[in-house]
Amino acid sequence: MQISAFTNCYAGKDLEEALAAVKELGVNTVELGAGGYAGKRHCDPALLLKDKTAFFRFHETFHTYDMDVNALTVHGNPVHPDAETAKKFDADFRNAVLLAEQLEIDTVVTYAGCPGDPAGAKYPNWVCCSWPEDLRALLDWQWNEVLLPYWQEAAAFAREHGVSRVAIEMRPGFCVYNPETMLRLRREVGNVLGAAVDPSHLIWQGIDPALAIRELAGTIYHVRAKDVKIDKFNTAKNGVLDTKSLDDVADRSWLFRAAGSGSNASDWQDILAALRISGYNRVLSVTHEDGLIGADEGLRRAVAFLRSIGTV
């Protein structure tokens, strides 16, 4: 497996500065934010698709730094109940697919999204329990009337444009948040859709990421190297469902951390072993969302840690 870096952590740097910083770590492949919640700091598909000069300069920058792009990430909610919001997220997804086609990149990473309800909702409504029974009725409506029709069409669009791997990141707050929901979406839509595994989102839910990876064998299209630290005191008081700001580091039940700063080396070796057993041999994309240390330090620590446990 190859260590990659998600350049979004360098939002304050331009593309060349970000690539130079990644190169200093001895990393030669990157994941780029290309719209939606991920932003367009280093990659604006709409601009690059219409401006040939900008596209050429963008493309040449990676040659200059001897850097590959392994995935475009366009986190969004294309089934958002607000029609204009959904339209923007959908446009971002399609532009990312079209740019991936031009760059001959086979992987686009995104979220499945979450609808609202049939009665003109303004905000998404994530169903995370089965009672009262009207929650089950809402969940059935979200999947059968909104989520599945959208992804059946969107997956066909990706396939038509050479993107054979739409990696759905499993994240609470959206309809696909664990292996069971990921496998359901893939089963209903087809194998253009696969899993983007971010261990941090699994661990705080109480999921063993190594076992989840074994469950997802053959369906994994992208993997993040990102960790989470469970605060035992706060969790014992309030559980793991936590709506406080990620900046509230003292009171939250869990915090995102750099790889190796939440789970130990043995846990990460189990993750790597599960990936190998499951046939995954692509990138581990170091993703920095650690609120306790800066981006440079976070990436440096994570890359050093992954190398120390035999990633490559």
How would you describe the overall organization of this protein?
It is a single chain. The chain is of the alpha/beta class. 43% of the residues lie in helices and 15% in strands. It has helices at residues 15-24, 45-50, 52-64, 83-103, 133-160, 179-189, 199-203, 209-215, 232-238, 265-277, 295-308, and strands spanning 2-6, 29-33, 68-73, 107-110, 165-169, 193-197, 220-225, 227-230, 254-257, 283-286. An eight-stranded parallel β-barrel has the order 1-2-3-4-5-6-7-10, surrounded by four helices. A two-stranded antiparallel ribbon has the order 8-9. Helix 4 (83-103) links the parallel strand 3 and strand 4 (107-110). Helix 8 (209-215) packs parallel to helix 10 (265-277). The mean pLDDT is 96.
| 3D shape | globular
Low-confidence stretches: none
Average pLDDT value? 96
Name the helicity range: 40-55%
Beta strand %:
15-25%
The rounded distance between the terminal residues' Cα atoms is 6 Å
Q: Which sequence of strands runs across the widest sheet?
A: 1-2-3-4-5-6-7-10
The helix-strand sequence is EHEHHEHEHEHEHHEEHEHEH
Count, helices: 11
Structural class: alpha/beta
Give the radius of gyration.
19 Å
Largest sheet: 8 strands, parallel, barrel
Number of strands: 10
Secondary-structure blueprint:
Elements: E1 2-6, H1 15-24, E2 29-33, H2 45-50, H3 52-64, E3 68-73, H4 83-103, E4 107-110, H5 133-160, E5 165-169, H6 179-189, E6 193-197, H7 199-203, H8 209-215, E7 220-225, E8 227-230, H9 232-238, E9 254-257, H10 265-277, E10 283-286, H11 295-308
Parallel strand pairs: 1-2, 1-10, 2-3, 3-4, 4-5, 5-6, 6-7, 7-10
Antiparallel strand pairs: 8-9
